[in-house]
Structure formats: C-alpha cells, structure tokens
Specification:
Radius of gyration: 29 Å
Strand content: under 5%
Structural class: mainly alpha
Number of helices: 7
Order of helices and strands: HHHHHHH
Oligomer: single chain
Distance between the termini: 77 Å
Largest sheet: none
Amino acid sequence: MSEDEFDAFYASAFPRLTGQLYALTGDHGEAQDVVQEAFVRAWDRRQSFLADEAPEAWIRTVAMRLAVSRWRRARRWLELVRRTPAPEHTPGPDPERTALVAALRQLPEAQRTAVVLHHLCDLSVEQVASETGAPVGTVKARLARGRAALARHLSVGDADEQGEKEDGRVR
C-alpha cells in the first residue's frame, strides 16, 4: 500500500473506528488514542496491509486489545493504590531548603540557571555552557555573581533568625 492509499484509508476509517471504540471505552479521548496507536502499528506493515482481507477489522482488533490492556493496567494501578496506605504525615521541606529556594528566586534567571545546573544538577561549567548556549567565561561569571548574591541573601536570613533567637522578639 502506498502512502497515499494508506492516508485515504486512514481518513475514511478513523472516524468510524473511533466511534466504535468510543462505544467500547466510554471515553472519546481514549478511543482516539487507541485507534491512533493501531494505525501507527499498521503503518509499519503498510506494504502488505491492503493484501489482508480486512484491514479495518485488523485496526479495530488491535485498538480493542490496546483499550483492554490500558484498562487492565489502570485497574491494577488502582488496586495497588488502594492497598498502599497513605502516609499519615508528609513533612514539608526543611527550613534550609526553603531558604535556599527563596534565595534562588531572587537571582536573575541566567544566574539562577547557571547555579542550579552546576551545583544542583552536578554539571560541569562546560556542560552548563553547552546547555545554555553561553560562552564558558559567561557561565563562570554568572556562577560567581550568583554565589555571591546567594551568600548575601542567605546570610541576611541567618542574621534575622539569629537576632530572633537572641532577644526572643519577632522582627
């Protein structure tokens, strides 16, 4: 089957098959997804596809099997979720992490990106330069400025906390 023949078959059969699978699944988006996936699989075998006696039946069968497989997977996931008890209490982020995130938000985007990629994602300066499209020297400058700004932001927060602890007053 040529690409044009397959396109024509797709255009005529897709709406009909989607309607049929919608009746099976009860979800129009799911029906479109499984029919589309079945057509993708048919595309790989399009050379011999029209030689099959019932290409639309093949698509429908594949789509139905995909829908059933997805349904089973979803059901197993729900059973697993139901059996797993929810944690009684999920602790929030620790104060140090909260302070770091707040300080990072105050940096210009380019500095923040460089600091996060280098220090949190463990990328080398060269890798940061490659990923951001900036020269290595620029990345080094952004890192230096970003670290200096973070030090100022974090030391101000530490000084405020220290002052609260020393005199017992909230500022």
